[in-house]
């Protein structure tokens, strides 16, 4: 992809200070995009619409949503934990889509990329609430993707795990020898996917050469899902 493949595109990145946000902003700007890096909470019902309205024209929405993943046995998942996962990861996604899609459909141009999780593609013990919310994200992307494709709007998702980021794999986790052993045991790649590797792929999916992808979920996890 050329260095200026996103030149002239206005890209809204949500939760830009968490998860993949910082590196996404850096990489997208490096490809010529005007990046609107928003760090506001999206939990309140009106927050998504306010953020989109304040951003001006949005050519690309990168829905980067994150929550600390609970590690609770399924029989001990509380109502609060379940609701928190969906309130943070699922409800804001639908609100963002509803806020940004009308203008994209009217222009017959736009892209939405959801930074999701491969936890929805392979079972993980003690992650039922988190995985369910991440799974809802991916199902939503697939449904909306095929619905809006006729309007020349492309909606896709990256389902990632074992990607270097400060929210789920902070330095102290990476420095733990037991974690390094787990990487070698569970991830065919044998290491974390680099943050920039992931962000460059995200930038490609938001560029014109990726117009052919419709409602697709792309695992980025070093082969973890394939095992």
Description:
The chain is an alpha/beta fold and 227 residues long. The chain is built from eight helices and six strands; from the N terminus they run E-H-E-H-E-H-H-E-H-E-H-H-H-E. Strands 2-1-3-4-5-6 form a six-stranded parallel β-sheet, sandwiched between helices. Strand 1, helix 1 and strand 2 form a beta-alpha-beta unit. Helix 1 packs across helix 8 and helix 3 (79-89) runs parallel beside helix 5.
Considering the chains and any ligands shown, give keywords for the structure.
globular; six-stranded parallel sheet; 227 residues; 15% strand; 8 helices
Helix-and-strand structural type: alpha/beta
Mean pLDDT: 97
> What sequence of helices (H) and strands (E) makes up the elements?
EHEHEHHEHEHHHE
- For the largest sheet, list the strands in their spatial order: 2-1-3-4-5-6
Q: Nearest-angstrom radius of gyration? A: 17 Å
Given as residue ranges, the uncertain stretches (5+ residues, pLDDT < 50) are: none
Strand content is: 5-15%
Shape: globular
> Total number of helical segments?
8
The end-to-end distance, rounded to whole angstroms, is 30 Å
- DSSP, total strands: 6
């Amino acid at each position: 992809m050329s260095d200026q493949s996103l030149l002239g595109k206005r890209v809204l990145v949500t939760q830009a200070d968490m998860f993949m946000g910082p590196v996404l902003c850096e990489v997208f700007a490096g490809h010529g995009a005007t990046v609107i890096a928003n760090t506001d909470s999206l939990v309140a019902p009106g927050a998504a619409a306010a953020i989109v309205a304040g951003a001006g024209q949005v050519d690309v929405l990168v829905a980067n949503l994150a929550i600390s993943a609970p590690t609770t046995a399924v029989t001990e998942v509380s109502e609060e934990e379940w609701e928190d996962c969906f309130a943070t990861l699922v409800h804001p996604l639908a609100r963002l889509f509803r806020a940004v899609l009308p203008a994209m459909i009217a222009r017959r141009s736009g892209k939405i990329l959801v930074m999701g999780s491969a936890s929805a593609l392979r079972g993980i013990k003690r992650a039922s609430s988190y995985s369910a919310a991440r799974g809802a994200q991916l199902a939503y992307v697939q449904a909306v993707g095929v619905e809006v494709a006729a309007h020349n709007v492309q909606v896709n998702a990256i389902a990632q795990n074992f990607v270097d980021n400060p929210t789920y794999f902070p330095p102290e986790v990476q420095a733990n020898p037991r974690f390094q052993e787990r990487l070698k045991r569970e991830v065919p790649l044998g290491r974390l996917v680099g943050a920039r590797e992931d962000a460059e792929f995200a930038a490609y999916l938001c560029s014109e050469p990726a117009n052919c992808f419709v409602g697709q979920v792309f695992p980025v996890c070093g082969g973890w899902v394939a095992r």
